[in-house]
Structure to design on (307 residues):
């Protein structure tokens, strides 16, 4: 009888563990008609349910616009409820800023609503969404229950469009990924950068082109805005977050280039000290080491195969 009893106890434990898995999302108003749903600046974990990315929404007077939808179907459902309760408007448009799973696996909750993403983002999602979903199921377990990737339905193209009383301008960049969408709401001066900008959180680089990313940040630095909503971290009221992200990426590229050219191994590079000016970045050591593992082989290959 021990095995059946053990199975019952495990099932009960799983039920109890899953019973408190609710995203207690809160919206903070950051400008007229505009709210931020701030994610944790930690890594994916069972404690946060993968709620690590910023999402945002705008009440336009002609329906609500949602920017990114979070890591799971359950998150997306909670977000949609929060948006419609806060704005009193139905959601009429969704934007995915890029193809990383913490920003789009909540799309299911918005099925039937136009979901926009850059063409390169849509291609990357088509190729990688299933793998991303499988990985998050392994990391987050029952938080992901019922989540199936729901891909964007409309190409987001650079230029302006008006929704209700808000004129939204879309910019197509690349660097963090092959397609990084930036949205400027001219009605409030709010710039939504996705993961091109991290604020006091170490940038992630699994699909990064550091040179293109730094070029994108240079472009962003010339865009007038009143406030900036990064993909991770607090809202910034000036260009400091852009400059700090650019500084970190420039240092990271230089660190790896110098390590390769001086004959250091990747293993040695993983444990080199990090400058103290980056101490305020959450997840700094972990993301630095992940970045070395992502980027070092390509730099090494280019160095030894240069003509």
């Amino acid at each position: 009888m021990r095995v059946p009893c053990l199975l019952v106890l495990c099932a009960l434990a799983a039920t109890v563990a899953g019973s408190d898995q609710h995203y207690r999302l809160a919206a903070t108003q950051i400008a007229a008609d505009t709210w931020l749903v701030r994610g944790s600046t930690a890594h994916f974990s069972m404690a946060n349910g993968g709620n690590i990315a910023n999402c945002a929404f705008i009440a336009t007077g002609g329906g609500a616009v949602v920017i990114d939808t979070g890591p799971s179907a359950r998150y997306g459902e909670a977000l949609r409820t929060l948006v419609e309760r806060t704005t009193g408007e139905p959601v009429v448009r969704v934007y995915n800023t890029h193809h990383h799973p913490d920003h789009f696996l909540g799309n299911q909750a918005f099925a039937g609503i136009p979901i926009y993403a850059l063409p390169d983002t849509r291609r990357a999602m088509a190729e990688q969404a299933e793998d991303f979903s499988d990985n998050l199921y392994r990391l987050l377990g029952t938080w992901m229950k019922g989540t199936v990737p729901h891909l964007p339905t409309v190409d987001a193209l650079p230029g302006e469009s008006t929704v209700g009383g808000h004129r939204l301008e879309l910019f197509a960049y690349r660097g963090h990924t092959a397609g990084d969408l930036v949205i400027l709401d001219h009605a409030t001066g709010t710039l939504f950068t996705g993961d091109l900008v991290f604020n006091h959180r170490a940038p992630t680089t699994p699909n990064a082109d550091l040179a293109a990313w730094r070029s994108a940040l240079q472009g962003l630095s010339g865009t007038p805005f009143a406030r900036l909503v990064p993909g991770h971290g607090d809202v910034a009221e000036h260009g400091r977050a852009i400059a700090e992200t650019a500084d970190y990426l420039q240092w990271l590229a230089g660190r790896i280039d110098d390590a390769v050219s001086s004959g250091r191994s990747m293993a040695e590079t993983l444990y080199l000290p990090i400058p103290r000016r980056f101490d305020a970045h959450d997840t700094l050591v972990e993301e630095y080491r992940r970045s070395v593992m992502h980027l070092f082989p390509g730099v090494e290959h280019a160095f030894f195969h240069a003509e």
Summary: Confidence is low (pLDDT under 50) at residues 1-18. Residues 23-239 form a domain with the Metallo-beta-lactamase; Chain A fold (CATH 3.60.15.10).
